[in-house]
Every structure is written in structure tokens, then in C-alpha cells.
TrEMBL record:
NCBIfam families: glycerol-3-phosphate 1-O-acyltransferase PlsY (TIGR00023). This is Glycerol-3-phosphate acyltransferase. The keyword Metal-binding does not apply. The keyword Acyltransferase applies. It comes from Persephonella atlantica. It is found in: Cell membrane. Its main location: membrane. Keywords: Acyltransferase, Cell membrane, Lipid biosynthesis, Lipid metabolism, Membrane, Phospholipid biosynthesis, Phospholipid metabolism, Transferase, Transmembrane, Transmembrane helix. Catalyzes the transfer of an acyl group from acyl-phosphate (acyl-PO(4)) to glycerol-3-phosphate (G3P) to form lysophosphatidic acid (LPA). This enzyme utilizes acyl-phosphate as fatty acyl donor, but not acyl-CoA or acyl-ACP. Its EC number is 2.3.1.275. Belongs to the PlsY family. Pathway: Lipid metabolism; phospholipid metabolism.
Amino acid sequence: MDIIYLLFTYLIASIPFGYVIGKISGKDITKVGSGNIGATNVARTVGKKAGIIVLILDMMKGFIPVYLAKIYLFPHYGDKYIAVVALTAVLGHCFSVFMKFKGGKGVATGIGVLLALSPKVALIIMILWTGIFLATGFVSLASIISAFISWIAMNYIDGNYYYTLSTLLASAVIIIKHSSNIDRLIKGTENRFIYK
């Protein structure tokens, strides 16, 4: 495997766009709202436009390295290598070297990775996420359920063993990163992003 490209993927995915956009807007995103550098906290504390920008950038830093590896750079390495690149992208976002190995929760970057691995699976997960979010108002609940379903969808729709394994491991990381949200959901203290 090309270790240099994996390092490149990790560094690209580590770029904390939420933190950068927050700083540009005059706020330290780690010290306001939930303290998370993801698009949701940026939208809540900086503004919706800033949140959308962060969402797109976080998706792209998952999509671009995996897409390049899959289509252009290393097709001769096979699906196993592509799956490792995919997992590396999620890990880079969640454990950013630029944030002292802290980071976001991996949802947007994970969607970007899914778009590169399997657009059909990504579309299903985005529809599922949107439905749960609109029905409940909870970003976290939509993210947790979608992450759990993602590897199942990958297995049944795409059928690629390595992609499925990578998606399973990435979804486990995403769910673990939502542990505090899970605790608040159970206690009934989780904040809704939208109110019914």
C-alpha cells in the first residue's frame, strides 16, 4: 500500500474547516455551543451559511481522496486499499492532528466517503438521515441511526466486503464520537436543531 497517499488522506481530512470558518467569523468554535467543530455547531453559533460551507467542505475532504484513489490513482491496488483510504479519511476528521487529535464526529466526512465508494448507498443514507431529522429535529439521532444503517446498506446494495468492513469501522467511530449525545438522548436533555 502507498503509505504516502494514506498520510495525504489523513492530513487533508484533518483540516478543521469548522474551526477555520469560526475563526474567520471571529469565534473559537471549540468554546461556543457544543464545542464541536462540525457543521451543526457552526450553523448554531456562527450562522446557517457558515454551517453549509463547513458541511460541503467536510464532505469534500472525505469524497476527494477516496474518489481519486478509486478512479485515478491506485485501481491496481484493489478494493482493500480503497477501503483503507476511506477509513483513514473518517479517522482524519475525527482525530485531527491539527486539533491535538480531537475533531468532529465524522458524519459529513463519512457521507463524502460513501459518495465516493457507492453513490447509491450514499443517497439512501442521506434520505434516511433527512427523514429522521425532519421527523424528530435531532441531528444526533439522525446521524447515529444513519451511521449504523450505512454498513448494512453497503453490504446489501454494493456487496463489497472491504467497503462494508470499512463502513462498519467508520460507523463505529462515528457512533462512539456521539456517546455524549446518546447519553443526553436517553436522559431527554438533547437539544433539537429544529422544533416541531
